[in-house]
């Protein structure tokens, strides 16, 4: 049900704690502190919110519950995801892509960050750098998943990245106002997917690549034009630290 990184993280956790939940909670407090530090660093570098907003990030009861009470894999996956974002803000494309891929290996919902990552890497780096970043992300998945890919590749891919998975209404938070029969229906799932894709394309066209004349086809054409000479990207494209 989860990718290889999840297996390694929780196998190590089980070995260190010996099954003692309190010890696990202490470890996850440390993960929470590091996670919070990285998130604060991302906000500070982005310069898109006033300073008084930053303490509010420490007040979420649900975040505290997820980290300290439930010890969910979301905690580790999110830490990798925000660390990758911090690296991308410094234009460390290859390392950022590799770290984000490590997050995907813990929980596949980090895949939701891949589309903007592609916009940043393709629109903000040299062509060889963007290809190296994609190769690094793939290499992380292959390295971590090798024991499973070498034995049961089809089964591992099908279960670790189960895109057809049906979510449990009981665990839903944001969609509790929707009746359960609607939440579990196929049209509702496809509608959410379509809305998500539409939102991504809208953001790509109006925000992420607005300075370069929009997303399709200009964005891809520009990358292809730069490929032979490995020319650097326009500095205005995919700026990860925009001024407010």
Topology:
Blueprint: H1 4-17, H2 21-46, H3 61-69, H4 73-89, H5 93-104, H6 114-124, H7 127-149, H8 153-160, H9 180-183, H10 186-208, H11 218-226
Helix pairs in contact: 1-2, 2-3, 2-4, 4-5, 5-7, 6-7
What does this molecule look like?
The chain has eleven helices and no strands. By secondary structure, the protein is mainly α. The protein has a domain at 4-162. Helix 2 (21-46) runs parallel beside helix 4 (73-89). The longest helix is centred in the first third of the chain and has 26 residues, at 21-46. The protein starts with a helix and ends in an 18-residue tail after the last helix.
The main β sheet shows up as: none
Helix content: 55-70%
Work out the helix count: 11
Query: Structural class of the helices, strands and pairings?
Result: mainly alpha
Give me the count of strands: 0
Q: Report the end-to-end length measured between terminal Cα atoms.
A: 41 Å
Strand content: under 5%
Low-confidence stretches: 240-244
Write down the overall geometry: globular
- Arithmetic mean of pLDDT: 83
Rg to the nearest angstrom? Answer: 20 Å
Order of helices and strands: HHHHHHHHHHH
